[in-house]
Specification:
Layout (H helix, E strand, L loop, with lengths): L1 H9 L4 H4 L25 E5 L2 E4 H19 L6 H28 L5 H9 L5 H4 L13 H10 L7 H38 L3 H12 E11 L12 H11 L8 E10 L4 H20 L3 H8 L8 E2 L9 H5 L8 E7 L2 E15 L1 E7 L8 E7 L5 H9 L5 E6 L2 E10 L2 E13 L4 H17 L3 H10 L5 E7 L12 H7 L11 E3 L2 E11 L6 H25 L5 H8 L4 E7 L12 H9 L9 E2 L3 E12 L6 H27 L2 E3 L6
Antiparallel strand pairs: 1-2, 1-19, 3-16, 3-18, 4-13, 4-15, 5-12, 6-7, 7-12, 8-9, 8-11, 10-11, 14-15, 17-18
Helix pairs in contact: 1-3, 3-4, 8-21, 9-21, 10-18, 11-12
Length: about 675
């Protein structure tokens, strides 16, 4: 359909917006409990609030989100990072759908069919609908007329298989956004209900008003924790155990694994470089004389030749001077060069002519009731060759027809840009890659390392002796998709959760490196062990013991000057300490010290206070109370506005954290 083509050509939506909702992907028709590919215990990728997520349901969601992304962005490529993002986003949105569905069911909340219709096709559609470029007018603004026209097109009759496929895709596209709107509206209603329950009251407003208008100036002395050397503080095992038990909840964890690994770079050998040089010299001689440059380029270059008309702004920088400099002429040849592992050469096929840089096209309607569609401006490289050639050769008003699948499409050239110098250049680029022989040698080196170093101790020792870096990867989760920045490294994660601690892996191929890993730690407990966190515990214990010593030392002071002498520092001044703010001037966030400033009588020396940066003593001045009457309604509105900023995320995050969720996706990845 023309509308979908328009989306592909102009799509700029971010995937994070696409992921606002996943209701359209919860397709019960895909459930197939009798699958022959999985045992019944392995049919489900997880369970969310008693809803078992079938493998086919999950795959259908991933596939459809991928298609929506392609339509919205106009991109068909999908790298590893995007695949991972889609997979994780599908799971997160499935969780949101089923968890929110359960919450709303308990309180009888829903989005009615009439409400959904108004949100999608009413006079003021929801922002999810208004943001779709499919419904924009020529000024880039949402057009309800275009929306209605698109919906009417979903009921049209089709005559060809291609039209049927496009119509199916268009219906799926609309179903996604319609149901995405429903789920988003459900979330908005749920959060709005919570906001009415959690809003500020008169007491909150009065407290905040008093806190904001009351300030105090103070002088203080701080004895920083660095004043006492860590080496003078003794930390006993009983201290560690006591601190661990007190902080244990902070160290809750999910099962994880830690590994160390070495890399064997998959790089060309000297033989590979020599062979590539010999081959490229032969290509150089052929490219200079051949009459079929396209054949030579396409058989020997990493990039194909398609007769593209380059301009000075579109040709690769390495060939700019060659193609558009003073000596540029037909059949001029750029000799073979070698830089950064790549061989390069080029020949000018044609030059000395001018063509527009871009054209503005319109798609002509072929059926009664349809309207022409303005597609916008395109550069040559953005169009298929069958479209670009007649488009750039035509003048404004020229029409041409192109076969598309089983049908035809007619375009009109609306406008062309100013003509600029062009050139056709046959470019041969070849990056030297490892041969199969080199690949085998490197693989065997990695295998031999495993054979010779089958224990944890010998693995580390051999790596150190060979000058190989041991890369750590800590706390890997079962469902994570890769290890660090290693490409295609999901198999390493899977191995780590199947192996035993201390085990050495087989060889993994991760992009341009071979990897051998050591499983250094297995953590399956509910909490991280005391041994794992003892360094963190030790830091806290040392600070607490220092604070106790410092508080005892400063207790002897009767004035700030005496405290400064004991601390070895100077008396400092801070103005405008506010009860409603935990910042102590340039000292940073010190809530305990701020509290002491208001709790201590004016002109009196406070008790020593344990702070974040050290131990403080201070002398506050008189409290300053700003004049003015409280605007109770305005204060409540202001506080509610702050709640509204964080509540939606906190509410949804909380109900997801409290939900019963089982994630078995690692069995299918």
């Amino acid at each position: 359909m023309a509308t979908l083509q328009k989306i592909r050509n102009h799509g700029v939506i971010l995937l994070i917006i696409v992921g606002l909702a996943m209701l359209a992907f919860i397709l019960g028709d895909f459930l197939n409990s009798g699958s022959s590919f999985f045992n019944r215990s392995r049919e489900y990728v997880g369970e969310i609030e008693n809803h078992k997520v079938h493998f086919t349901e999950y795959e259908a969601a991933k596939d459809q989100l991928t298609e929506v992304y392609k339509i919205e962005t106009g991109r068909n490529d999908q790298d590893e990072e995007l695949t991972t993002q889609i997979r994780n986003q599908v799971w997160q949105m499935m969780q949101m759908d089923w968890v929110l569905r359960e919450q709303c069911k308990q309180i009888g909340m829903d989005v009615t069919a009439e409400e959904l219709s108004e949100l999608c096709i009413g006079e003021n559609p929801h922002q999810l609908i208004r943001q779709r470029r499919a419904f924009y007018d020529e000024n880039g603004q949402f057009s309800r007329e275009n929306l209605v026209r698109f919906l009417n097109s979903l009921n049209q009759d089709v005559e060809t298989e291609e039209q049927a496929a496009n119509l199916k895709q268009a219906k799926s596209y609309w179903m996604y956004w319609e149901n995405a709107t429903r789920l988003t509206r459900m979330q908005e209603k749920y959060v709005a209900l919570l906001q009415n329950l959690i809003g500020a009251n008169k007491i909150d407003a009065k407290y905040q008003f008093e806190a904001d208008k009351t300030t105090v100036d103070a002088q203080y002395v701080v004895m920083p924790y660095t004043a006492i050397a860590d080496s003078t503080i003794e930390v006993k095992s009983v201290d560690l155990k006591k601190q661990y038990n007190a902080d244990k909840k902070l160290y809750q964890q999910t099962p994880n694994r830690s590994i160390e690994y070495i890399q064997f770079p998959i790089q060309p050998s000297e033989e590979d470089y020599a062979a590539a040089e010999q081959e490229m010299k032969a290509v150089e001689a052929e490219l200079q004389t051949t009459e079929d440059v396209a054949l030579v380029v396409n058989m020997n270059s990493d990039y194909s030749y398609n007769g593209l008309n380059y301009s000075e702004t579109t040709i690769p920088e390495a060939y700019k001077e060659f193609a558009f400099g003073k000596g540029a002429k037909k059949d001029a040849f750029m000799p073979l060069t070698f830089t950064d592992g790549t061989y390069r050469m080029a020949r000018i096929v044609a030059c000395g002519y001018s063509l527009p840089d871009s054209v503005q096209l319109k798609l002509i309607a072929t059926q009664e009731g349809q309207e022409d569609t303005e597609l916008g401006w395109f550069q040559e490289a953005q169009l298929q060759k069958e479209i670009s050639e007649p488009a750039f050769a035509g003048k404004p008003g020229t029409r041409f027809t192109v076969a598309q699948g089983m049908g035809e499409q007619t375009f009109e050239v609306m406008a062309v840009s100013k003509a600029t110098p062009k050139a056709k250049v046959a470019i041969v680029e070849r990056t030297v890659t490892p041969s199969s022989k080199t690949y085998s040698v490197l693989y065997n080196q990695a295998k031999q390392f495993i054979v010779n170093n089958a224990t944890e101790e010998s693995f580390r020792d051999a790596a150190q002796e060979a000058g190989m870096r041991l890369y750590p990867a800590y706390y890997m989760q079962k469902n994570q998709d890769k290890v660090g920045q290693l490409k295609q490294s999901r198999p390493i994660v899977r191995w780590a959760f199947e192996a035993e601690e201390g085990q050495i892996s087989d060889v993994f191929e991760c992009g341009d490196v071979f990897v051998v890993a050591l499983l250094s730690e297995v953590s399956d407990g509910e909490y991280r062990s005391m041994q794992e966190v003892q360094d963190e515990l030790r830091v806290k214990i040392i600070r607490d013991k220092k604070a106790k010593q410092m508080m005892s030392m400063l207790a002897a002071a009767t004035t700030l000057e005496e405290a400064a002498q004991i601390a070895g520092t100077e008396v400092q001044t801070v103005e405008g300490i506010a009860l409603g703010n935990s910042r102590l001037g340039q000292a940073g966030m010190e809530p305990a010290v701020v509290g002491a400033a208001f709790a201590t009588e004016a002109g009196q020396l406070s008790a020593a206070v344990k702070g974040n940066a050290g131990v403080y003593v201070l002398v506050p001045g008189q409290k300053n109370v700003a004049e003015g009457e409280m605007d109770e309604a305005g204060m409540i509105q202001q506080m509610n506005a702050r709640y509204a900023y964080s509540l939606p995320y906190q509410a949804i995050s909380l109900i997801q954290d409290k939900a019963e969720i089982v994630d078995n996706r690692s069995n299918f990845q």
